[in-house]
């Protein structure tokens, strides 16, 4: 951040009075520009034991596999965001279930939240952000070609819980943005 | 948003190619400025059956009561943010427990996440953002003077679950920012 989004004049990085951390503050109008983590919402969609995976058509990690997930928009819930991403990336209608995982990508300033989900019917397709979309058995998950560590975490916990007959909520944190 | 935070030139609100929603786009350098919900993290700190509440010294809702909560910072986890807010607002060390509630304040573009928590010792005080801090029994919670509807939601679910001997995760959404 170089300029104030309110008045267009330069900002500088300073600790505001009463605060603990440096913030971008406008030298002209005094607006304090706080920067906070962004939410990514996704789901693990299941149909008769198989999981829906998408191969990314966009960077970062083009060509790698992912569960449907993306940045949450203003005005929607986490569950609505997760369901919307399934529509956009896999043309799939899902019913969102329990919260599965919260993954903190600390250096990327992101919090990834994944839900369990169920395809409402066995219909899906290749959305504009995907190269390929398919249902896979657990044994066929391309673990070495999963795009992001949060997706690996969500899928591993999903399968472990399913095998154990439980639906827990799992937390993780990593420093780096991608593996 | 009126100006580009990268180059300082005016932005206009347009739908970028391939997108579904209008974004602020710089007319000069082309940067797309996405706006996303902000995370608020808080906890319900308990000590021997009593709950720690803070009376707000700052706007909005100055003079009203709240559980410790505030905007999450970059580089921390939700649990670390919730624990930090207890230190800042109530000078209290807490041990964060299970996730209690996710409250979507849709029009405010905020997601509030609350955890169960336990004071590690019966020590607390009045932080710079508080007028007063105290431990209260459930029957003494000043329900009509709780600052935000998300706090009411978290406290109600906390007590209901405690009475039932369970620790569920609860979801809610409201359109408006404050009651």
Architecture overview:
The structure is a homodimer of 179-residue chains. Chain A is an alpha+beta fold. In chain A, 16% of the residues lie in helices and 37% in strands. The radius of gyration of chain A is 19 Å and the shape is elongated. Chains A and B meet through strand 8 of A and strand 8 of B.
Question: In terms of topology, how is this protein built?
Answer:
Two copies of one chain form a homodimer.
Chain A: E1 11-14, E2 23-26, E3 32-33, E4 38-47, E5 50-56, E6 65-66, E7 69-71, H1 78-90, E8 94-105, E9 110-119, E10 130-136, H2 149-164, E11 170-174
Parallel strand pairs in A: 4-9, 8-11
Antiparallel strand pairs in A: 1-2, 2-3, 4-5, 4-7, 5-6, 5-10, 8-9
């Amino acid at each position: 951040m170089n300029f104030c989004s309110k008045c267009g004049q330069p900002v500088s990085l300073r600790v505001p009075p009463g605060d603990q951390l440096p913030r971008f503050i406008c030298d002209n109008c005094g607006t304090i520009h706080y920067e906070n983590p962004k939410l990514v919402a996704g789901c693990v969609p299941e149909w008769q034991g198989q999981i829906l995976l998408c191969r990314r058509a966009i960077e970062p990690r083009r060509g790698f596999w992912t569960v449907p997930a993306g940045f949450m928009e203003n005005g929607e819930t986490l569950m609505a965001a997760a369901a919307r991403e399934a529509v956009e990336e896999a043309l799939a209608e899902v019913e969102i279930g329990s919260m599965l995982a919260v993954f903190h990508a600390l250096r990327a300033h992101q919090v990834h939240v994944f839900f369990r989900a169920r395809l409402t019917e066995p219909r899906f397709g290749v959305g504009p952000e995907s190269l390929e979309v398919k249902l896979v058995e657990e044994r066929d998950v391309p673990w070495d070609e999963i795009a992001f560590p949060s997706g690996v975490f969500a899928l591993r916990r999903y399968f472990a819980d399913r095998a154990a007959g439980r639906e827990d909520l799992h937390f993780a944190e990593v420093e780096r943005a991608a593996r």
